[in-house]
Design a protein that fits this description.
Layout (H helix, E strand, L loop, with lengths): L1 E4 L8 H13 L4 E6 L4 H8 L5 E4 L3 H4 L5 E6 L5 H8 L3
Parallel strand pairs: 1-4, 2-3, 2-4
Bound molecules: adenosine-5'-triphosphate and magnesium ion (MG).
Length: 91
């Protein structure tokens, strides 16, 4: 399953939602969180704690995505058309 968390508005809980979804999915099967936001919040949170799933940024997505059963993609607020196109395609 691939889930993209997106919103035009900032600060509405995208990253929080992405992390919680990834925790839930990881309990079922190997899950990857792709941090597609240049502010790298999810990557920062992953560095601070012991998240039970792998977090990478979008530049590494092609390398890692095929190895995972579930993928959650966190995105920046106000995504550009191209961002939406690429995340809705998966990676
Ligand atoms: N369900 C919730 N209830 C209350 N507070 C929440 C909830 N989800 C997120 N928050 C809080 O709202 C703030 C913004 O959350 P978050 O960083 O996940 O938003 P975001 O949409 O990813 O922001 P950005 O657009 O900057 O990436 C954080 O302080 C977070 O703890
Ligand atoms: Mg965020």
């Amino acid at each position: 399953m691939i889930i993209t968390v997106a919103s035009f508005k900032g600060g509405v809980g995208k990253t929080t939602t992405a992390v919680h979804l990834a925790v839930y999915l990881q309990a079922k099967d190997e899950t990857l969180l792709i941090d597609g936001d240049p502010n790298r919040s999810a990557s920062g949170w992953a560095k601070r704690g012991d998240l039970p799933f792998k977090v990478i940024d979008e530049r590494q997505a092609a390398k890692f995505a095929p190895k995972y059963q579930h993928i959650v993609i966190d995105t920046q607020a106000r995504p550009q058309q191209e961002d939406l196109r690429s995340t809705s395609r998966g990676v």
